[in-house]
Amino acid sequence: MLVHSLAFRLKDPLPNDAKFLMEDFRLAVNNAIRFGVQTGATSRNALSKLAYKDFRKEHPNMYAQHLVSAFEVAGSILKNHRRRLRKGLPAQVPFVRRLFMKVENQAYRLDRGNGILDLPIRAGCRIKLTLVMSEYHRKYLDNESYSLGSLTLLPDRVVVTIRKHAPKPYAPVSVLSLDTNERSLDGVLAKEDMIVAVVRAEFPDVSIIQSVHHERRRKLQKKKSHDRRTARKLCAREGVREHHRVDYRMHEVANAVLSFAEERRSMIVLEDLGEIRPQMCKRMNRRISMWPRRKLHQIIEYKAAWQGIPVMKVDPRYSSRKCPVCGRIQDSRKGTEFVCGCGWHMDRHINASINLLQTAASEKAAGGLWFSPGAFQHDVVMVLCGPGKAVRPEPNGTSGMRAMT
Ligand SMILES: [Zn+2]
């Protein structure tokens, strides 16, 4: 089952009844968390078995389904908390501050035609909210094969999850192998035994956006050093902006890659990023953790599953240091060009993607596709997603920085 979430704005401000309900919900979640920490229970069932009766007394008016959903939210928060403790990471007893409420799909009704949401609050009392619908929302709501999942109510918006059965991926006739780099996805398209194209999807603006926002946060912190509360608030806002901007770019890159693959009935090969190894240098750590390579993979995999495009993850070991022709493994990975003693030379990133392709082919899941790097000449790089195409005009002048890089 695949899940997609749709966010809606509300046509009218939230009625007070709904606000009180959300406050009750938050209270119930926090109570359940405290209870779970005391007793060691984490699952929704364990929590509700232990605590339902007491909670019912404390919240006599709350709709029972909402209470069960509060247990579920508490359960997932507790699970994360346990995981942190297990890993020895610093962890305080979790506490929900944000006002929100999760509603299971049995507990609400949404008219998919006119966007009117019907939400029970307590016995005999329901509220009706009107969701603002756009073309984008229509695309999902008008499709009868999608069903509605859980709903999250927030003070200014409503998030509805849409579910559908995963389509069966098509049988690929070509392979698109991509090496993920800091500023681009670089790769090759292979068909039968030949590499037929070199492709590149660039996103140099992502690292620019990140460094701009990092610099801004640093300045804010300095400027507001006398007022930590304000500093935290402003930095959080910067973080949200950065997140939106980077996300927007990542989605564009993923869409470009996926439509390219779909047109050619390709299987997409990506490197398996595995666990992040701890880095020694703090500065490098920041860069690595910031850089949304994993996020990009997640977006590609998720969209591919939704569209029925096959994706294969392969072990990237030695992919940047191996010669795909003679198999020799080099010690260093310096420079932009990979040069081997056997005469093979290739752009370093493209070389890595050829190695990924070979790994995929050797694992046979690629449908018996094989190729020889010798049979490959590349003169033209196909740019799937260029930097110029998608840059939105932003009021903060990143263009000045772009000229520098
Ligand atoms: Zn070689």
What features would you describe in this structure?
With 405 residues, this protein is an alpha+beta fold. The chain has helices at 16-39, 44-58, 64-86, 135-141, 204-223, 228-263, 282-290, 293-307, 348-362, 387-390, 399-404, and strands spanning 2-9, 101-103, 109-110, 116-122, 125-130, 147-153, 157-164, 174-180, 184-191, 194-202, 266-271, 311-314, 337-339, 345-347, 381-385. α1 (16-39) crosses α3, α5 (204-223) packs antiparallel against α6 (228-263) and α6 crosses α8 (293-307). It is 43% helix and 21% strand. The longest helix is centred in the middle third of the chain and has 36 residues, at 228-263. The strands form four sheets. It has a six-stranded mixed sheet with strand order 12-11-8-9-10-15, with helices on both faces. Strands 1-7-6-2 form a four-stranded antiparallel sheet. A three-stranded antiparallel sheet has the order 3-4-5. It starts with a strand and ends with a helix. The protein has eleven helices and 15 strands. β4 and β5 (125-130) form a beta hairpin. Zinc ion binds next to loops.
